[in-house]
Amino acid sequence: MYADVITKSMQKTIDETNYRREKQTAYNLKNGVTPTALNKSLDSALAKKFCLYSRQRTRIKKSGRGSKPLLDQTSDSKEN
Q1: pLDDT given at position 8
Q2: What pTM was computed for the model?
């Protein structure tokens, strides 16, 4: 965070973050949890997002709502 002065709202957010971090650390110690980083590649994350987008687009297309679905703008179909 970059600022010359810490405002009340910034301090409140910092305090809440520290509180949650302490609470999470205590839970992890109590339950023997070792935090690990997610090991997902960017390609994997983008592929999943594209897959969800494609399914959503297909559902809207099949439902036939409206004259032309907003999400179907990239389609080359000749429906109208």
Answers
A1: 96
A2: 0.46
